[in-house]
Structure to design on (117 residues):
């Protein structure tokens, strides 16, 4: 199943579902909350508060994935990432596009670590 198929099945999430009062979050729920919080920490500093501008994306990548970017010898890596993620061509990265990046990096890391273990 490809990302496009997954995205079409899940569709946009139109409302927030708060965790049950007093319930402890699972590791996965905590990870999802972190992904959401990281995105919104960087989004909306300029322009649309629900999207990352190129500058905001660069700041997120440098702060949150600095080690990954350091290994990239291509000085245009952020520009290429932005072009690859910006599926709708609006010059910004929305939450769904951001999740695609995180998922792709997670798959790559999983492959690397499990094949080299």
């Amino acid at each position: 199943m490809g990302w496009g198929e997954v995205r079409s099945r899940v569709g946009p999430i139109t409302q927030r579902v708060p965790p049950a009062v007093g319930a402890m979050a699972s590791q996965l729920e905590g990870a999802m909350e972190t992904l959401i919080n990281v995105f919104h920490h960087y989004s909306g500093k300029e322009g649309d508060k629900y999207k990352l501008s190129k500058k905001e994306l660069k700041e997120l990548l440098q702060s949150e994935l600095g080690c990954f970017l350091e290994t990239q010898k291509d000085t245009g890596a952020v520009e290429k990432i932005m072009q690859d993620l910006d599926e709708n061509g609006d010059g910004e990265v929305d939450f769904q596009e951001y999740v695609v990046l995180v998922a792709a990096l997670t798959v790559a890391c999983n492959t690397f670590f499990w094949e080299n273990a």
Observations:
- Helices lie at 3-10, 27-42, 54-64, 66-71, 77-85, 95-115.
- The mean pLDDT is 78.
- The longest strand covers residues 51-52.
